[in-house]
Amino acid sequence: MHSRRVGVIVSGSLVGGLEMKLDEWYSVEDIRAGKFVVIEGEKSRFFCMVTDVRLDTTNPQVLADPPDEEEDLMRQVLHGTTTYGTVCLRPLLMTDKDDAPAARANEPHLVKTIPIHFSVVCEAEEEDVNRIFGSEEYGARYFHIGRPLDMETPICIDLEGFIERSNGVFGKTGTGKTFLTRLVLAGLIHKDRAVNLIFDMHSEYGWQATQETGSGRRGFVKGLKQLFGSKVAIFTLDPESARRRGVQSDFAVKIPYNQIMVEDIAALADELNLHATAVESSYLIVNKYGRDWLSVLLQQDPKDIKDFSDQIGAHPESISALHRKLKRLEKFDFLQEKVHEDAVYKIMEYIDKGVHIVLEFGQQSSFLCYMLVANILTRRIHDLYVQKSERYLASGRPQDKPKQLIITIEEAHKFLNPMAARQTIFGTIAREMRKYFVSLLIIDQRPSSIDDEIMSQVGTRITSLLSDEKDIAAVLTGVSNASWLRSVLASLDSKQQALLMGHAVPMPVVIRTRDYDGVFYSAMGHVEGEELAQKAHANIADLFGDR
Ligand SMILES: Nc1ncnc2c1ncn2[C@@H]1O[C@H](COP(=O)(O)OP(=O)(O)O)[C@@H](O)[C@H]1O
Ligand SMILES: [Mg+2]
Question: Which ligand 1 atom is at minimum distance from the Cα of 520?
Fold first, then answer.
């Protein structure tokens, strides 16, 4: 036996999981839920996760009369014989043991049986981890995202599997969602797997972001633009804030009123505190004024609302409420009567060239603004993608194939709660999978507020600590026989640990998230000291040099 032994299997079942008696030289305190171990069965090796740890005894009398604090010797005598630790294991994958010449036959497959009595349990080794999760050395589809709880071998996600569906990053505030997301996005950009459009509510992805460095102090980490230069463009809704923070943005997004549709307003009903009848009455304005409906409404003088309502055949009270509440939109500087350049075409132009876009909201980080902009832009981008996809399906020419687009949204439940999921474009995208080459990366701290059907479509779930039972149940939606995962989720550290499960990994696994630091920057090809930012700007200008 080459690796360190942990214990032996003493009982268990396929459905309920296995129990192992912990070896006496191994401390229960060293066994954590989520640890990755291997069972050497008679004919197969089983790859397992620790789900629970328990104290046991062969003699209940000892418990009635426990040794005193001073009786160290007594404790030692009892330990391992009369008293011992029991570890619950969940076998997740198995491989055949006989070194079958056909390597194929030896691929890890789903567990269909359990090991014999007294099979030895060992700590997993580097080789085991690589065999199951792949390794960056095996090819560009693998991306190192973290390490097992107590090993140094990288755990990779399979980016090909990842981009096949919409995906989610979940966890309470402060658990590392933003850092994990930035890590995954960096992987996708570095390995050129998909084009990303990131709705960056708190301006944390493009240029530098703050990092809590303990004792309340703050440091800075690099944003994607700093790491990848011309591969990433920063669009902004708040050029003023970008300038103040020293961010060179590539484009200031302006949206004309005539691009706001009633659907966009309907999606904001909660934020605007708008009654359904008020939303309904906006259709009457649309009937008469078409795309100019919102400008026309906002231009009305409050004292003319009655006449205006009569004209379009609406209830004056509804129109008055609508008018009053939509007036709030006028404070957004980026909403304008006429715009010089259409932001959606601009975004598509960049996407077509494979440039990733971070849209910063700057000071405009209210939900109202975030949802309004994300809805308007995504709806039109999706329309263009549907057209592109249909052109490609008709022609079948590889050059017509749209680039896979991943749209990242935060506070996803605002867009994907059961009500909104039926109305917003995001619900549509999540449901249609990637038929039109668009999928979502959703970030959320309250997954229980997301529609069940949408949750079950989320291909890969990266989950940090959650404490609410409802949230835990939500991230396990659609996972069969998942009760054992609850205890694993609940026992994660409050920072920088996550449970990975779904399409991008062959079995669920707990990781310590890779550090987002200087070592990571270099791995992404970043050269310290090089004036990347300025160069980046020049390069983007080159890309569009034809104008
Ligand atoms: N992978 C990581 N590398 C370095 N620091 C991290 C990492 N993950 C989390 N942290 C630390 O945890 C803090 C909170 O992470 P953050 O991603 O902002 O949490 P959330 O988005 O879930 O609220 C960060 O400021 C940082 O100090
Ligand atoms: Mg965050």
Answer: 3
Band of pLDDT at residue 199, cut at 50, 70 and 90: very high
Ligand 1 pocket, residue 17 CB under 6 Å:
no
Binding site membership of 179 for ligand 1 (Cβ less than 6 Å) = yes
**CB of 496 shorter than 6 A to ligand 1:** yes
Could you tell me if 493 and 534 are in contact, meaning their C-beta atoms sit under 8 angstroms apart? no
- Helical packing angle, 276-289 and 316-326, nearest 10°: 90
Q: What is the DSSP letter of 31?
A: -
Nearest ligand to the C-alpha atom of residue 170: 1
Does residue 177 have its Cβ closer than 6 Å to ligand 1?
Answer: yes
On average, the pLDDT of the chain sits at 89
Contact of 33 with 488, CB cutoff 8 Å = yes
Question: How many Å apart are CA 317 and CA 280, to the nearest integer?
Answer: 12
Which of 523, 181, 544 has the alpha carbon at shortest distance from 346?
544
| Ligand 2 ion: nearby residues, β-carbon < 5 Å | 178
Evaluate whether 167 touches 194 at the Cβ level (below 8 Å).
no
Instruction: State pLDDT tens for residues 454-479.
Output: 999 999 999 999 989 999 999 998 88
Q: How far is the CA of 410 from the centre of ligand 2 (A)?
A: 8
Q: In terms of C-beta distances under 8 Å and separation of at least 24 residues, what long-range contacts does 12-17 make, across chains too?
A: 12/89, 12/114, 13/114, 14/111, 14/112, 14/113, 14/114, 15/481, 17/51, 17/88, 17/89, 17/90, 17/91, 17/484
* Stated pTM of the model: 0.91
Mutate to test the pocket of ligand 1, among 496, 500, 511, 514 (most ligand atoms within 8 A of CB): 496
Buried-state track 12-27, b at ≥16 Cβ within 10 A, e below 16: beeeebbbbbbbeebe
